[in-house]
Design a protein that fits this description.
The chain is of the alpha/beta class and 481 residues long. Helix 3 crosses helix 5 and helix 5 packs across helix 22.
């Protein structure tokens, strides 16, 4: 029985639908990033659910992030297949005053209120503007933005004539050099232009395979990086010499970054989510996001029960980047006279450049006895990389990591790895900016997976609700594994 067939069977009321989603949301995430073959197996049931369960869907409690995530997912399924029943989803969104972001606003322009075939072409610039805005403000990478554009292209190819398909193709060729729409520079769109559109059905299937390629984890940069060197650290560079014979702190390294950024372009594609590969990107990240990064972490540390800890701790910094979360922790302990000894910090990061700098930063922390570097993506991690002592108290730092899309790593695999390798007492400090409810639910799904947990601190703030108009989603909890 397919996932959506089970959903249809279970959804006899809004309460039963809510219960099913609470228990199974991770399966919907996984389906969301699966191949067209898997989606085709669910296609008829997805359409049936949208058409027959509309009234039940409208009654869901959309204050719950799980339910908001689900309606985002079925919107994307409708976008992929071009379902006319997407109007039912739009009605549910409108009646519940739900907003799914600019990328889906772009999709609505070619899925809804098409009165004339020429609307597909006339709305090209508006669609591109919304997709570019989504890339800059909402997305982790260009993956979903490019996917939505491919869905747009596929719909025109399949549902109109060769005249309009050629017109759209010519628009794409003309606009690829436009700096305002840099997502159009994607190599996947170069491959799109190579597809012969004279046979609409063949072209449509080729576009679906291209979308599959984008969503396949084997093509991601994060999985391509694995360096089996026991300890990595930056040495004999201009930057490392700058830090010699000075007291290193987060504020110091950010001041250096600010100074460096006075002389360079400070644009950073993807908000720093993908691994940084050039030194200037390290400075730009600190310059653009460093103060916000620190403020979110400190808001967690102020709520953390350090008084409960009476023995040395181990810290695991997941997706550590330049080691900023670990640095802020060390600075916080020192400035607040909290005497806790850190027996080991394990830095996990797929960027070779970033992890070497992280080790350089952490080496200066006097409370840290040992530093381990693991230059791998989450998908490449093995038990031996992260195993901790069962008697040790572990603090896990997840800063700007857990809300990253399923396409980058399997959250289920990460959770299973943690449960197998981190026996004993664990504290989890999870913080990210608020981007969308969909991303917030990624964090909450991680928290929910630890059933024997004690919630310590939880806070959500959107623009205007916290200091400096910054946003945050923070979860701090304790779990015994």
């Amino acid at each position: 029985m397919t996932l959506f067939r089970r959903l249809i069977t279970s959804s006899t009321s809004d309460k039963s639908l809510d219960a099913f989603l609470s228990e199974n949301i991770q399966f919907f995430y996984e389906l969301h990033n699966s191949s067209i073959a898997n989606l085709n197996a669910e296609k008829d049931d997805i359409c049936e659910f949208i058409e027959t369960k509309r009234l039940i869907l409208e009654k869901l409690d959309f204050t719950k992030n799980t339910n908001k995530s689900f309606i985002s997912i079925i919107f994307d399924f409708s976008e992929r297949f071009g379902f006319l029943s997407i109007v039912n989803i739009e009605n549910t969104l409108r009646r519940n005053e739900l907003y799914l972001g600019k990328r889906r606003d772009a999709a609505k322009l070619y899925l809804l209120n098409i009165r004339n075939v020429s609307d597909y072409i006339n709305r090209f610039n508006d669609i591109c503007f919304l997709l570019q805005s989504s890339l800059e403000e909402e997305e982790d990478s260009d993956k979903d933005v490019v996917t939505t554009f491919l869905n747009y292209y596929a719909k025109v190819v399949r549902d109109t004539s060769i005249e309009y398909s050629e017109s759209l193709k010519n628009n794409l060729v003309a606009k690829r050099s436009c700096v305002a729409f840099d997502f159009l520079q994607s190599p996947y769109l170069s491959q799109l232009l190579e597809i012969d559109i004279t046979n609409p059905e063949s072209a449509y299937q080729s576009i679906q395979r291209l979308i599959d390629k984008i969503n396949d984890r084997q093509y991601r940069l994060l999985d391509a990086v694995t360096i089996d060197i026991e300890y990595l650290i930056e040495a004999n560079t201009d930057y490392s010499r700058l830090l010699e014979n000075v007291e290193i702190s987060f504020n110091l390294i950010r001041d250096i970054a600010v100074d460096k950024c006075r002389r360079i372009d400070t644009h950073l594609p993807g908000r720093g989510v993908t691994p940084l590969i050039e030194e200037n990107e390290l400075y730009i990240y600190l310059y653009r996001y460093g103060k916000m990064h620190k403020a979110k972490l400190e808001s967690c540390f102020y709520k953390f029960p350090f008084v409960e800890i009476n023995q040395p701790i181990e810290v695991i910094d997941w997706g550590c980047g330049q080691g900023l979360a670990s640095m802020v922790l060390c600075d916080f302990l020192k400035s607040n006279d909290i005497e806790i000894h850190i027996s080991k910090i394990t830095l996990i990061e797929p960027s070779h450049l970033s992890i070497k700098r992280a080790a350089l930063h952490i080496r200066a922390c006097p409370s840290v006895q040992t530093t381990i570097t693991v230059c791998k993506s989450f998908e490449s991690l093995e038990l031996k990389d992260v195993c901790a002592g069962a008697n040790a108290i572990k603090i896990h730092l997840f800063s700007n990591v857990l809300d990253i899309d399923e396409n980058y790593y399997s959250q289920n695999n990460l959770i299973e790895l943690i449960k197998r390798s981190q026996k004993g007492i664990n504290y989890f400090i999870c913080c990210s900016p608020y981007i969308t409810d969909f991303k917030t639910n990624r964090i909450d799904n991680f928290v929910r997976s630890f059933r024997d947990r004690e919630m310590i601190f939880s806070e959500d703030n959107q623009v205007g609700e916290w200091t400096n108009n910054w946003t945050r989603v923070v979860r701090v909890f304790k779990a015994s594994l």
